[in-house]
Amino acid sequence: MAELAKRVRTNEDNILENKVELSTKIDNNFENLRTRDADLESRIAILEEEVEALKNRPIATGGGESIDYSRIASNEDMLKIIERMKLVEKRNIE
Fold first, then answer.
1. Whether pTM exceeds 0.85
2. What residue ranges do the domains of the chain occupy?
3. CB-based contacts of 81, cutoff 8 Å, min separation 6
4. Is residue 51 classed exposed, middle or buried when 0-12, 13-18 and 19+ CB atoms within 10 A define those classes?
5. What is the DSSP letter of 67?
6. pLDDT tens-place string over residues 76-88
7. Secondary structure E strands in the chain
8. How many CA atoms lie within 13 A of 16 on its CB side?
9. Which residues 6+ apart lie within 8 Å of 10 measured at CB?
10. Who's near 73: CB < 8 A, 6+ residues apart?
11. CA–CA gap between residue 81 and residue 74 (Å, rounded)
C-alpha cells in the first residue's frame, strides 16, 4: 500500500512538472507569435505606403510625350552594322 501511495505521489509530481513545463512553452510560443505579428504589421504598413506611392506616380498617356524610337536599332539593324564593321576592319587590315 505504501508503494502504491509513493507511485501516486510521484505521478502527481510528474504531472505538475509537465503542466508547468507545457505552460512555459506555450507562453514562449505566444510571445514568439506576438513578435512575428508586430514585424508583419510594420512590413504591411511599409507595403501599403509603397502601393500608395505607386498609385500616385505619374503614368504615360497617349497624348503626352512619346518615346522616340528612331534612335533604337532592331536586332536585324544591329547585325547589319556588325557585318559592315567586320568588312571595314578586313579592308583596313589589307
1. no
2. 1-59
3. 73
4. exposed
5. P
6. 989 999 999 999 9
7. none
8. 6
9. none
10. 81
11. 11
Q: Dihedral sign, CA of 38, 41, 43, 46? A: negative
CB 81 within 8 A of CB 73: yes
Produce one character per residue of 4-23: b if its CB has 16 or more CB atoms within 10 Å, e if not: eeeeeeeeeeeeeeeeeeee
Cell of 4: 502504491
**pLDDT tens digits along 4-62:** 888 999 999 999 999 999 999 999 998 888 888 878 888 898 999 999 998 888 776 66
Tell me which amino acid residue 57 is.
R
Rounded to an integer, what is the distance from CA 76 to the centroid of its chain?
A: 39
Alpha helices in 1-94 (DSSP H): 2-56, 75-93
